[in-house]
């Protein structure tokens, strides 16, 4: 007589990774982390050109970086630009994706193709075209035009996670269920759809923030020194002092990570609150 528990025990056994898999993962992590770790070390190195490791360490370059006159201004401008881009992208993309998934399903392939176009348009071409077309006050070379440019440039990073999340929840069925209970379109979108696609919104927001916060070309060509952002300051110091530029890079990495953690924490709190509300009802 066969033991019915044998297949279950065999399934519960832990599958150990092979040796080549461990080596492959280790090489990948080494390849990804080496530039970041090297930047961190270079930002505190006194001299690092004659030995494998730096000859000494100092925090002088961080002190000089923080004392730079434009440090706070450029950091504030980059955060404003990133936050404004995320807000405008959500306002434009979330209702559009929702409408296409529920009412205009035939336009979804066309929208998918349109969302690929920013990858094929060089940022130099996009910037010069926008500057030529919108060469009238108050848009001409203004931060508003820059926000519009980076929204177009980063739109695929917001669209794809939101679209995938919308497709996974079956938005049409949820919409019909909400309308059958007397909810209008705004109530369905704000109280049913958005809480269910929150993971996609968070993923898109993280991608957009990391892309816009480090964006250089569009900012340089559209506004230049009129709205100086953190990447402009970083590139400027690559020609002056490489150690200070490395310190700026470390600050940029750290801020991006902290903001990412903050966005994930806020999203987790929102999901937990929605779950508790549903359970209470």
Verbal overview:
- The protein is mainly α.
- It has a single domain, classed as MetI-like fold (Orthogonal Bundle), CATH 1.10.3720.
- Helix content is 75%, strand content 0%.
- The protein is built from 14 helices and no strands.
- The protein has helices at residues 6-12, 19-43, 60-66, 71-102, 108-114, 117-120, 123-133, 143-169, 171-180, 185-196, 198-213, 217-222, 230-238, 242-280.
- Helix 4 (71-102) packs across helix 13 (230-238) and helix 13 (230-238) packs antiparallel against helix 14 (242-280).
- The radius of gyration is 24 Å and the shape is globular.
- The chain starts with 5 loop residues before the first helix and ends with a helix.
- The model is unreliable at 276-281 (pLDDT under 50).
Percent helix range: over 70%
The CATH class? Mainly Alpha
CATH homologous superfamily heading = MetI-like
Strand content: under 5%
| Mean pLDDT level | 84
- Which regions are unreliable across 5 or more consecutive residues at pLDDT < 50? 276-281
Number of strand elements: 0
Distance between the termini: 50 Å
Named CATH topology = MetI-like fold
Topology as a string of helices (H) and strands (E) = HHHHHHHHHHHHHH
Task: Using the CA coordinates, give the radius of gyration.
Answer: 24 Å
CATH architecture: Orthogonal Bundle
Short description:
The chain has 14 helices and no strands. The protein is an all-alpha fold and 281 residues long.
Fold blueprint:
Elements: H1 6-12, H2 19-43, H3 60-66, H4 71-102, H5 108-114, H6 117-120, H7 123-133, H8 143-169, H9 171-180, H10 185-196, H11 198-213, H12 217-222, H13 230-238, H14 242-280
């Amino acid at each position: 007589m066969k033991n019915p528990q044998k297949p279950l025990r065999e399934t519960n056994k832990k599958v150990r990774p092979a040796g080549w898999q461990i080596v492959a993962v280790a090489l990948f992590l080494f390849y990804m982390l080496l530039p970041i770790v090297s930047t961190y070390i270079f930002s505190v190195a006194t001299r690092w050109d004659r030995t494998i490791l730096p000859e000494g360490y100092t925090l002088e370059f961080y002190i000089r970086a923080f004392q730079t006159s434009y440090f706070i201004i450029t950091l504030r401008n980059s955060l404003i630009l990133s936050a404004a881009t995320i807000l405008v992208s959500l306002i434009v993309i979330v209702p559009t994706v929702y409408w296409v998934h529920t009412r205009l399903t035939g336009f979804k392939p066309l929208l998918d193709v349109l969302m690929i176009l920013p990858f094929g348009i060089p940022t130099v071409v996009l910037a010069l075209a926008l500057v030529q077309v919108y060469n009238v006050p108050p848009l001409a070379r203004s931060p508003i035009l820059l926000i519009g440019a980076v929204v177009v440039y980063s739109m695929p990073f917001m669209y794809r996670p939101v679209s995938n999340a919308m497709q996974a929840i079956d938005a049409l069925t949820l919409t019909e269920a909400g309308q059958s209970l007397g909810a209008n379109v705004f109530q369905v979108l704000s109280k049913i759809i958005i809480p269910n696609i929150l993971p996609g919104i968070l993923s898109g927001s993280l991608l957009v923030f990391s892309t816009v916060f480090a964006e250089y070309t569009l900012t340089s060509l559209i506004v230049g020194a009129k709205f100086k952002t953190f990447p402009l300051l970083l590139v400027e110091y690559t020609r002056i002092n490489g150690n200070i530029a490395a310190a700026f890079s470390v600050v940029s990495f750290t801020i991006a990570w902290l903001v990412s953690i903050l966005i994930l924490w806020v999203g987790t709190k929102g999901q937990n609150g929605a779950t508790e509300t549903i359970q209470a009802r």
